[in-house]
Amino acid sequence: MSAHTHAPSLAIDDAIAAMALGALDVAERPALEAQLAACAACREQLVELQRAVNGIGLSVGENDDVELPAGLRDRIVSSAQSTSNVAARTLPFRPTSSPQETPRSSSAFAWLAVAASLVLVGAMSWYVMMSRQQAADATSQQIAADARSMTLQRQVASLQERVNVMTAPDVVSVALQAQPDAPGSSARVFISAKRGLVLTAEHLPALAAGRTYQLWVVTKQAPVSIGTFTVQSDGSVTGVMSLSADATLNPVAVAVTIEPEGGVPSPTGPKVLVGMMTPQ
Amino acid sequence: MQSDQHLLDQIATGNAEALGALYDTHARTVFALAKRVLVRQEDAEEVVQDVFAYVWREAARYQAGRATVAGWLVMLTRTRAIDKLRSRQARPDLNQAADPAPVLDASVSKLATPESMAVSQDEARRVGAALNHLPAEQRALIDLAYFEGLSQSEIADRTGTPLGTVKTRMRTALQTMRTAMQSTTPQRGGEQT
Questions:
Q1: pTM summary value
Q2: Among B79, B94, B109, which residue terminates a domain?
Q3: In this structure, are B85 and B131 located in the same domain?
Q4: What would the 3-class secondary structure string for chain A be?
């Protein structure tokens, strides 16, 4: 298969069909990806076949006679009610320190970051209290102070979440190394199977419209998506993300890829940061 | 009944009852697919919980007007179910050993885009009907790939079929389903929600 061919051929059709089903052998994937990059008709063909593949799954619900487990709905709703889905979804803050150290300094970095976060938590808590006092002075000031107070409360909550993860007994620190698509970038993640994941990254390049960064924990079984994120204008990001059970099963690496907006179930785009996990 | 997009908007604001409403609409599809892949009731149930927990966390990221919610849920379900099948060897009627996949290359679905998940219920019905009318040897390949997550080489090994034949049959089967999906679709524009 030639990467420079711009129209599907029979062999390429075979590979595209396999790709749509997720059945393409790994060894054949680079050649097809190159082909897809060069061939708009091939990409369109892939999307159409993927839609048909998706239809297989949708049709199962209509064809199979199944009975939903009793109580499952209540368990799902109750679990949701007990877990905030707002705080961990976005990564709105600048890093609290500059993680430019080598992997060997991960412990020192962790404690510096924890200490900095604790100081910030204290300072912001105080500021929240002061904001509330100021809010009592006048209606207009109250509105502004309330808004400021709510923002700060969210920041405090997020900082506390970070500290909670970084001080977990099972926390593991992983330094991510820049890849050719994002030279100069750096990142570190703190992973606790029990408490979640903290990501801190710097100098990531701005992305084209319709693209997003996606974080993965790569297990021995498969890469597991942790979530997508955007960076600030300076390319930095810090935040807490939750871990699914799959992500804690034999993790071997952490990676950041560039993906279509909204993220994808499995990595497809270039890897910009990669860090290998070593036994602790 | 509220639209899926409205429910997702509500879920994104922390409304757990909206998640319940989305469950009411789609849980049967999610559970049926998970059970078809995993067979065991408890494993399928766990996947359903994982899928809706993911929706709860990531509802704000869903792209309106591209993937259908049902298509998105199917993609999430299949990915998780096959991950579980591979990692825990959950399917009791198979002797296939787990085959740890290479880093960043082990995926159930490659290059999935929101557009690829934009499939309507009518289209899905036509795909399902076409699937049921495939020649047995083609149907078997699709089942092994879609419901068990096997690669073409693995299917060739499992069935004793030459790899080239596997590739040809897989392409033919998918093209048949694609044609069926499109056959009575006058236009694509109205199907995306």
A1: 0.56
A2: B94
A3: no
A4: CCCCCCCCCHHHHHHHHHHHHCCCCHHHHHHHHHHHHHCHHHHHHHHHHHHHHHHHHHHHHHHCCCCCCCCHHHHHHHHHHCCCCCCCCCCCECCCCCCCCCHHHHHHHHHHHHHHHHHHHHHHHHHHHHHHHHHCCCHHHHHHHHHHHHHHHHHHHHHHHHHHHHCCCCCEEEEEEECCCCCCCEEEEEEECCCEEEEEEECCCCCCCCEEEEEEEEECCCEEEEEEECCCCCCCEEEEECCCHHHHCCEEEEEEEEEECCCCCCCCCCEEEEEECCCC
